[in-house]
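Section 5: illustrative case.
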């Protein structure tokens, strides 16, 4: 009996790049952020409080099986941003500590007798991971150096630009050169080659920006660049770990096909904190 030959399989096609979509979402958002950084003051604080609540809302929806208390997260996040605007880091920490008794009281009002540890953990995760970095952004914007130089404003823009360019370069580098998975159990599409491209772009961007900031020593600009290059992908993977654990692709839909606020800001939640401490070092 003659054997029938199978038709050759069609060549595998690579998923088309969504770079244009990323640019259309990322560039306007970056411009808006820079405008508010320049405005500073109450306007910047209010933007940080709003974004913190948006990210917390997405996180608490992801963790709804743990029964977090969103109202506690929202109230404490706004309080931390206000404390950052009108106080110090100690006031921000004080506002954050209020979350623990508030969660406990809310559990009593719910008459919740089981799963208390999960409720507390989920609620406080939002405070530590999301609310604290946004409060640090408010503190960072207000840092001044010798002679009244607005160190915080410059560092904040450096961190945002470095994080954004690094993410874009990592995406392109991964598509063009990616061969070796970076963390296959957490985010299979990320590659070591993409990480290298992103890190290089971040460091170069921040070091070059430092050339136009006389108050920023070259060694400190390099340190900031390396720190952002390492922490940005860590922040991205941190969120990916949580999303994989709960079995979802995107945290929200604020940016349509490009996910939610938390998907767009996961890296900056890590990098802005190191930016704050480097700005404190420069100001002294």
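Designed sequence:
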């Amino acid at each position: 009996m003659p054997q029938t030959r199978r038709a050759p399989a069609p060549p595998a096609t690579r998923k088309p790049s969504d770079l244009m979509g990323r640019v259309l979402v990322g560039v306007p958002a970056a411009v808006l952020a820079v405008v508010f950084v320049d405005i500073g003051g109450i306007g910047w604080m209010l933007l940080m409080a709003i974004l913190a609540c948006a990210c917390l809302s997405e996180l608490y929806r992801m963790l709804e099986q743990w029964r977090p208390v969103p109202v506690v997260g929202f109230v404490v996040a706004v309080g931390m941003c206000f404390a950052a605007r009108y106080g110090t880091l100690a006031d921000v920490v004080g506002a954050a500590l209020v979350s623990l008794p508030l969660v406990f009281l809310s559990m009593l009002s719910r008459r919740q007798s089981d799963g208390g540890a999960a409720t507390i953990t989920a609620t406080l995760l939002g405070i530590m991971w999301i609310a604290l970095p946004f409060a640090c952004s408010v503190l960072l914007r207000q840092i001044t150096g010798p002679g009244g130089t607005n160190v915080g404003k410059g560092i904040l823009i450096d961190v945002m630009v470095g994080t954004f360019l690094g993410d874009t370069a990592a995406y392109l580098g991964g598509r063009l050169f990616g061969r070796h998975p970076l963390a296959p159990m957490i985010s299979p599409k990320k590659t070591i080659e993409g990480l290298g491209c992103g890190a290089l772009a971040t460091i170069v961007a921040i070091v070059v920006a430092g050339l136009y900031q006389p108050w920023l020593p070259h060694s400190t600009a390099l340190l900031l660049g390396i720190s952002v290059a390492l922490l940005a992908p860590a922040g991205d993977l941190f969120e990916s770990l949580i999303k994989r654990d709960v079995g979802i692709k995107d945290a929200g839909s604020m940016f349509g096909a490009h996910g939610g606020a938390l998907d767009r800001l996961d890296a900056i939640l890590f990098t802005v904190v190191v930016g704050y401490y480097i700005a404190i070092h420069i100001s002294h």
